[in-house]
Amino acid sequence: MATLEQARTGRDDQTRVVDLVFPGDVPPAPFSRADLVVTGVDHSSTSYEVRVFLNDPDATASTPRTAEQRYAGRYTVFGHGGCYGGDGHCDAPAPGEDLRLAPPLTSFDTYVTITGALQRLLAAGDALQTITLVPVSLTPRRADRRPAPELLHFDDVTLQTYLTATDADQIPT
Amino acid sequence: MGLRKNAENLTPAELTDLREAFQAFYEIDDDRGHGFFAGIHGLPLPVYCEHGTALFLPWHRAYLYHVERALTAALRRARGDDTVEVALPWWDWSSAVSHDRGLPTAFRPTADGSTNPLSAGPVVLGSDDLELVRENLPGAISEGPDPVTVRDPEEPDELPRDPTVQRALRATTFTDFSRILESIHNGVHGWVGGAMSAAPTAAFDPVFWAHHSMIDRLWYLWQLSPRNGDPPARVLDRALPPFPTTVRETLDISSLGYEYAAQVIG
Predict the structure, then answer these.
(1) Most CB contacts within 10 A, which of A69, A106, B62, B265?
(2) pLDDT averaged over every residue in chain B
(3) How far, in Å, CA of A1 to CA of A159, rounded?
C-alpha cells in the first residue's frame, strides 16, 4: 500500500509517482487479473481523469496512451465543481454512521484494471517498480484542460491480483 | 409505459414527440417542470445525486423513471391529448455511429438552424448559483440572464469502446459492475464537456437523459446475464430521496413500466 503522502512528484510537478514493487520479496501468486485499487478518492472539485503508466516516472499528460508507453488504463472522476453553500458547507464529514444520508462529497473507492499492461511487463522479464498517476482536468471547456495535480487526492493505492479474470480484464479503460 | 429506443433509431413522429415534450417540460416553472427535475441532480442545493456508492445505479434509475413520467405529463398537457407517451431514448456512445459522429443526431443543433430543444436546456437557477457556476465552471453555461447549457465535445473516437462496455458486462458482482460502469459514465460526462462535465449542472443538458438511459440499459442487460446480482442487502430497503422509491423497487424495470427495445421493425 502506498499513500498519497508517500508519493513523490513526477516530471514538472504535474504527476505523482508511487513505488509499488511486484513481484516483491514474496513469490507472486498466479493471477489473471490485476487491479490498481485507489481509496478515498476526492470528487469535490473539477472533474478529472487519472492516467496510469507503469515503470515510467517521466510520463506526463502528453505521453501517448499506448502499450508501448506502458499505459495501463485510467479512472475518471465526475466532480462537484466546488462548494455552493455557506462557510463550512462542504467540510469533510465526520467519520461514523447514523441514519442520515452520507454527504455528497464523501470520498469513494475505485480501481483500474491493469492486467494487460502488467502481464506485458512481466513477460518482458521486468518487475513493476513504479506507478505514475497523471491527473488531467476535465473542465467544461476543452481548451482549459491541463495537467491538474491539485485535483489528485486519495488515501492510498494498492495492487491487487486475482485468479477470477476473463479476457475482458485485459482491455484498458 | 414507454419503450426506450436507440436515439439514432427514433421515427420522425417519435422525435417530434420527444422534442415537443422537452419544450413543454422547459416551459413549466413549478415542481412538474425541467428546472425542478434538473435541479434535483445538482444545483440548487441540496445535491441529491448518488455517485461513488452502491446507490449510483438505483438512484439514477429512479430519477429517469420520474422524469420520463413528467415529460409525458408535460406533452399531454401541451397537446391536450391524454394518450400520448414519450420514452427516454438511449445514446449508445460505444456504437460505430457514435465513434464516427459523436453526439446523437437528434440532440445536435439542426442543420437548418431551426430550434432543437434537445440541443441545449435552460439553466433555471438563482443569481447567486449562476454566479458561482460561472466562477467555478467557466464554459458550462451561456452568458446572459437566461443561460442555457453549453457543450464542448471531444473527438468522437475518444468515446468508450464496445470492448470496455463488454468488460463491465462481464463483472461478477454488483459492486464490481457498478464501479466499472460508473467510471465509464464519468468519462462520457467529461467527453461531452460544458454543463455535462460537472454534477451541479449536468442534468440541465437534455443529452444527460440519453446518456443515463444508456447507463440504465447496460444495468438492465447485466441483470439479464447469468452474472446478475442484487445491490448489497444493507441498501435494498433504502429510500432514494427525494423519490419515494426504494432500491428494491428499482430492480425490475418491468414493474417500473418500461422496456429497452433491441430492435423495432415496422
Answers:
(1) B62
(2) 96
(3) 8
